[in-house]
Amino acid sequence: MSWGKLPLFLSCYHCSKKSTRQFYTNFNDNNHNNYNKKTPPLKLPFLHVSGSGQPFIWLHGMLNSVESDSVYSLIDFESLQDQLSVVRYNYCDKSVDGDYSWPALTNELISVLDAQKHEKILMGGLSMGAGTAIQAAVQYSERVKGLILVTPPPAWEMREKVKAVYRKVISTTNSKVVPELLKRIIQLNQDPPEYFEKNHPGTRQQLLEHRLSFEPKYYTQIYLGGANSDFPSREQISLINVPTLIIAHADDPNHPLETAQELNKLIKGSELTVISNYEDYQNLQNKVRHFILKHGFDNKS
């Protein structure tokens, strides 16, 4: 199952009010779609922007949000603010009527880039966010400068079982209350990993509170999006030709290491980093900074 492991540690709510800027964009465009380059008008989400400089856009995981990513992430956003502008947003502004399938989220992403006049950008994402970033790299390769893919979710043959679980969850959801089955599933998710919780006690409880705080109908929509989504084909992914950093946990059953390893084989020149303990987590921050310095400023954005 892919419940979405978060990425990036922030010590306070999306950085601070001084360093975080919020933008609301209403952008109507008819130039982008997954298949025919035409899309209905989109009302785009609030943008949470930290730091300054060239942009890095981040896509959160399933049952995650800007708020929960500010509690725990595998990538420390705050440490990147002296290098670039970190752009984050909640998909569809957490709308209970939103389309959370990865093709639809790719439309939203591209329209955000158009509205902000970013021609080519470094982007990253966690779990379903990684799936959306991959979809964008396949469909809109000219818009992607580089990829940071954190704990990619089950894909292809492995995803069929995940979709079946998601459909079972959908059958229990309603517009009034969060069903007990879903509460148990969320409570069983061991985020953050034990090594992080040990060094930052109380993080797991904060994440649990965020994941149980959505409107009841939102869970129906987010799981429906996941049930209707998968990676592009292996052949399509093998054509991705941008610098790519893949980050995985060694023992995360919801985000199998096998998926990250296969992406590493498919994407030419990609690098795979596996995290097992807190020291690995700390070293990862330096690796991410190095990747961004090397690949984030070589093209117009």
Structure commentary:
This protein is of the alpha/beta class. The chain has one domain: Rossmann fold, CATH 3.40.50.1820. 37% of the residues lie in helices and 17% in strands. It is built from eleven helices and eight strands. The chain has an eight-stranded mixed sheet with strand order 1-2-4-3-5-6-7-8, with helices on both faces. The longest helix has 18 residues. The chain is globular. The termini are far apart. The N terminus is likely disordered.
Strand and helix map with partners:
Elements: E1 20-27, E2 42-51, E3 55-59, H1 66-69, E4 85-88, H2 102-115, E5 121-126, H3 128-139, E6 144-150, H4 159-172, H5 180-188, H6 194-199, H7 203-211, H8 216-227, H9 234-237, E7 244-249, H10 257-266, E8 271-275, H11 278-295
Parallel strand pairs: 3-4, 3-5, 5-6, 6-7, 7-8
Antiparallel strand pairs: 1-2, 2-4
Helix pairs in contact: 2-3, 4-8
Could you write a compact summary of the structure shown?
It is built from eleven helices and eight strands.
